[in-house]
Amino acid sequence: MSLLRSLARNVFRHRRLELDLDEEVRSHFELLVEQQMASGMDEASARRATRLELGGADQVKEAVRDARRGASLEQVWLDLRHGARALWQAKAWTAVMVGSLALGIGANTALFSATNGLLFRKLPVSDPDTLVRFRSAGPNQMRTDVLFYGYTGPDAQGRQVEPTFSYPMYLQFVADNRTMSGLFACAPFGSPNVIGTPVRVNNVPVTIVGVLPPEFTGVEQVVGEAPDVSLPIALEPQFNQPQFNFLESRLDRPNWWWLEVGGRLKPGVSAAQVQGSLTGVFQQTARAGFDSFLSSLSQKERSRESLQDRTLVADLQVDSASRGIYDVNTTDVRAISVLTAVVALVLLLVCANVANLLLSRATAREKEVSVRLAPGATRARLIRQLLTESLLLAGVGGTLGILVARWGQQLLPGAAAHASPLDWRVLAFVITVTTLTGIVFGIAPALRATRADVNFALKANSQSIAAARSPLGRFPVVVQVAISVVLLIGAGLFLRTLQNLRQVDLGFNPRNVTLFQVRPALNRYEPKKQNLLYDQIGERLRTIAGVRSVAWSDPRLMSPRRFSTGIFIQGRVYSPGQRDTISSMGVSPMFFETMEMTIVAGRGLTSRDTEHSPPVVVINEAAARKYFPNESPIGRRIGSTLENSGRLEIVGILRDAKYNSVRDAALPTRYTPFSQSVHDNASFEVRSSGDPLTVIAGIRNAVRLVDPNVPLIDMRTQLDEVERRLVQEKVFAQAYTLFGGLALLVASVGLFGLMSYSVARRTNEIGIRMALGAQRQDVVRLVMRESMILVAAGIVIGVGGATSASRLVSTLLFGLAPTDATTMAGAMTVMVLVAGLAGYVPARRASGIDPIAALRYE
Amino acid sequence: VKTDLLQGTLDLLILRALILQPDHGVGITRRIHQITKGTFDVKPGSLFPALHRLEEKGWLASQWGESENRRRAKYYKLTTAGRRQIDTELANWQRVSAAMAWAIKATS
Prior knowledge:
Helix content of chain A: 40-55%
Shape of chain B: globular
Strand order of the largest sheet of chain A: 12-13-18-15-17-16
Oligomer: heterodimer
Helix content of chain B: 55-70%
Structural class of chain B: alpha+beta
Largest sheet of chain A: 6 strands, mixed, barrel
Order of helices and strands of chain B: HHHEEH
């Protein structure tokens, strides 16, 4: 018989085999009896003699079973069945155990997968280590227009690092390349809107020549949303939206730096060698590009102050792009690390819980262990049984954990939420940690139990066993209380931060305003016709029932976008190179009225401010304070360059309003008439008298009547737009509240279990005390003191931990310190109240003990 | 004289006992008793595990049959592989017994 066949037979036809063996042993017995009788014995003595000789049919059968192939496999199967049955019997225990395992495993897997994706994963292309990215570092005056994507902050030496280059420069890199096997350039084309059929992009017919795998989300960042379409850079002129009156392509402009450039190293070449080989090319091209830009200008344009004395050129910086061209967004890293702290605590909590549960179960099972040891079960066999149970729990918990992880990923903020598939190594790690906890705390009591003298354990009552258990049992409860306190303090801090942020005076009224954006440039509207379109849409919107007023702006209030420009005040003296900046927003007539913003001096902007009327501007109080500290700005003139500092007349001052951040103070801002400058899109603001939802259908219809081909982009309420700026704080508050609540629950259950157990153990003692005259409240006090000591220890550790970690979150909070006394006190109060309740129930039960019954008890 | 069986000798004894004809457990015990001139008396606790082990290795095949006295009994018979195995086991045994003989001579 082949090995597999006998294995299959032994494992799967177990019952048949057993019956067969049974019969074989019985027939053997009968044959032996016959043989004895043949030699002259009577039947009774023949049977007795045979029974003696055979020496126990069951031992024979057990010996045969052990000799069979797959005996150990069969035992594993038996252990599994026994384990499953034992777990099923303790349903509540198993549910708590599996639930906490699934939560810990799931939360940790989701978060560490995201961390791994954000911080460590490489681009999903072949040989990502040979990819390099190009950036410029240090002061650079060789460009006039620049677009940044991704990180533009300072590098380790404090130099400004910028990621973009001009197209002619890219071509020069390609021409002079000696160190790389390939070079590429890329630039995001705004939002890639697919209009009409799949092969018409922004009304340009294109042929799809390939499909990228889903895990490749571009070369910018490892995790991110994949663009729907990728287009050759040479098509840029056709997709370029007419912006700022420039209709020609960016490809030809040497002074526009907008491309991200990267390449692949030739074998044996380092990034430093590439940098050495191309730095000269870079700086020459930069200078040549700027010179050719200057020579293309008229004499008057060339003499602009802003173009004088431009000499500084940046250094080329080439480094690895194995993890993409972008560095990870610092807010994402911060958000992820705060959440990582939470889930790490949750993992610790789960381990403490697993330990606690296993310890309590082990105590309950000490008698079972003794019973099984008595007839001769081996220690190894018993330990294997307990191990199987731990692994079974880990298996079920892990499976559910994967589901929790998939669900949990949807809740992550920022770039971490999309993409980044679950990392199986992380999952394996987390399951290993929890399983090891299970093994340590499941096996340690088992070892102790199996070492115990069988007779002693069987005879002993629960007191003697309990005495040995206490210190081990208390430790997890203290840890759980400490973790709960940390999480509760975090929840309190972030909830109050959110509350403070929601109460901030925005300077405008975000209620009952519906927003949507149109981008007529995508439909090839020319700039002049765009303003006409906006007027027509505005006209239509005003006729909708329930609409009180309509305005449009670029950008909208509280969007993530911010425009800023130079501010030069007519009549002031500026030193060369000096340039102040101011935030800027283009707004239509009725904008201030629609958003309920207050003009504190002068006038607002009206429909009489058109492209043909004199250019005017309204500034806010912050700008007035900063640039006109001791004078009235009304009637003064400003401009964005020194040459045109007389262009805009200040006609009004607006009360401060937030621009794109709830947190930051209002930025010095100028508001210009929408029609007096060029915008490639407009965000409409529609104020309704009631619920914004009631006017949405009307809005869609109104725009369709004006031009059915213009799509409405990003339709939402202004309140929603404000809430979007608070997403990070909301996620923190949610995570801390959710996990804090769970921790509280787990800690209370732990405490309740421990105290109930302690009361049961001390029934005798309590009975004696009561018999000697102790009152009910004395007993309650006695038990409560025991639990409150544990809670107090946990709170001290928790508050200490939270205080020492407070530095890490202080920048994330708003309107309160990380050691905020109210929050701390609140967290402690909640903890004490809930723990008090968890401790009071057993204490109450203890006080109800009947002294007579208690003294008889065991 | 009854002697405990040396590890490994039991397999050879069982195979040898079945060389002439198939037999049941009691018959095999009797046969071993005979061919070892009463030296070895195999207990069921050793016999049955050995029989099942040899069957799993494919050297024995079993079948339910009737005994001389019309009693149901499980009969074991040598397979072709079992017959070949006797030679191997014999060679092994001879090597062991020769070694033992030398060892005893060397020490005496």
